[in-house]
Amino acid sequence: MASIHRQPGRPYWFCAFTQFDLQTNRAKRVFRSTKTSDRKQALEICRAWQKAALLARNGKLSVDAAREVIAQGVADVFTHANVESLPSASIKSWCETWIEAKAIETEESTHARYKRVIERFISFLGETKSKRDLFTLQASDVARFRDREAKELSRSTANLGVKVLRICFGEAVRQDCSR
């Protein structure tokens, strides 16, 4: 069970939680600073660390699971610190929103071309990965998509796809939708 504590003379709350040590094959109690003086934020941070430690102990802490724990932990801390919620979007929902905006801004033929690229990219990612938060998208995902497009279609189509995705995700960065 995780808990938070204050040390005399220290401004921050500390989190005490149990972490499984793979070297000794035993659980050990660790004590880490949350780097916050807000009790509610410290408690949310501590809960996230405990959740990650439990997943690791059960052998279920993959890279994706760790990202999910981090994202949820940060969102919980943000919610407790602010009235509004943390803006976020899934890869698929962002792409759909972006392509709808392009229907107004571009010619029909350009919009159709952009839409085909986005549909192929979402299909390439698959149902599960396309529903993840936008911040989990990696440059390697786009590179793998480009490589597949070059093998199945042509190099110029693959390069066009990368350009369209660069515009799409560049807009997400400008609008700060990935955090």
What do these coordinates show?
The chain has about 180 residues and is mainly alpha-helical. About 60% of the residues lie in helices and about 10% in strands. Strands 1-2-3 form a three-stranded antiparallel beta sheet, covered by helices on one side. Strand 1 (about 5) and strand 2 form a beta hairpin. The protein is elongated. The mean pLDDT is about 85.
Shape: elongated
Mean pLDDT: 83
State the distance separating the first and last CA atoms: 29 Å
Number of helices: 6
Task: Tell me the radius of gyration.
Answer: 21 Å
Going by helix content, strand content and strand pairing, the class is mainly alpha
As a percent range, the share of helical residues equals 55-70%
User: How would you characterize the largest beta sheet?
Assistant: 3 strands, antiparallel
Spell the H/E element sequence. Answer: EEEHHHHHH
Strand content: 5-15%
Major beta sheet, strand line-up: 1-2-3
The stretches of 5 or more residues where confidence is low (pLDDT under 50) are: none
Q: What is the number of beta strands?
A: 3
